[in-house]
Design goal:
It contains eight helices and eleven strands. It is globular.
């Protein structure tokens, strides 16, 4: 029995990358698709927002004087490439999937229309939401928060390579403190960088819980949607 009936899954672009952390590895995409299928098998409606760090990091362009809006637009386009790759992997695993984009590109994907996305979810389709918010200066974390609220998701699940939120990097500091729960304000005030401030504030203002967990720990996503204690839950 699932606790959450509709979830927004926020993935980093690196989830699709190969061992070097760059590009799109079809094998990795299939592994991610398998995890999503097991969640859908619990009768959970799944929407996905994916980043683009495996293809483009705007900060590199900014270091060389690139215009911020241009760098962000390139990142938005890269998220669409990831969305298409993930859709392909999901379809090959037998899941009907729709890609919607915040920037219109009708030959490739549907434009993002909130009520259409909700209708797809109600039909049991996976919906992958690309191109961020469609605006520069906003991260895909903020896009995930916005879309989760718009489609009335029960929770925003941020699936990363770390098993929870820590007060510092657990890789470099073995004494890092692990949090099972956090308030929105603590996450903001402690500057934990689990999500950007705009994303956390958006979730706080709309009472949307955020669950941060490891994508790669076995059965983590299924445990999360069942309501079992995994990762870090951020809320009031």
């Amino acid at each position: 029995m699932a606790k959450y009936k509709r979830v927004l899954l926020k993935l980093s672009g690196e989830a699709l990358a190969g061992a070097d952390g760059f590009g799109i590895d079809p094998v990795q995409a299939e592994l991610v698709a398998d995890k999503i299928r097991r969640v859908q098998d619990l009768d959970v409606e799944v929407a996905i927002v994916i980043g683009a760090g495996n293809l483009w990091r705007g900060v590199e362009g900014l270091r060389h004087g690139m215009d911020r809006a241009t760098a962000d637009q390139m990142g938005m386009l890269a998220t669409v490439m990831n969305a298409l790759a993930l859709r392909d992997a999901l379809e090959r695993k037998g899941m009907t999937t729709r890609v919607q984009t915040a920037i219109e590109m009708k030959q490739i994907a549907e434009p993002y229309i909130r009520l259409r996305a909700i209708r797809h979810l109600e039909k049991g389709y996976i919906v992958v939401l690309g191109a961020g918010t469609g605006n520069p200066y906003f991260t895909t974390d903020t896009a995930g928060a916005l879309r989760a609220i718009e489609i009335h998701a029960d929770v925003l699940i941020k699936a990363t390579k770390v098993d929870a939120v820590y007060d510092c990097d657990p890789v470099t500091n073995p004494d890092a403190r692990r949090f099972e729960t956090l308030s929105y304000m603590d996450a903001l005030n402690m500057r934990l960088k689990v999500m950007d401030a705009t994303a956390i504030t958006t979730c706080m203002d709309n009472d949307l819980p955020v669950l941060v967990l490891s994508l790669w720990t076995d059965n983590n996503l299924e445990k999360a949607v069942r309501g079992e204690r995994v990762g870090t839950l951020i809320g009031h």
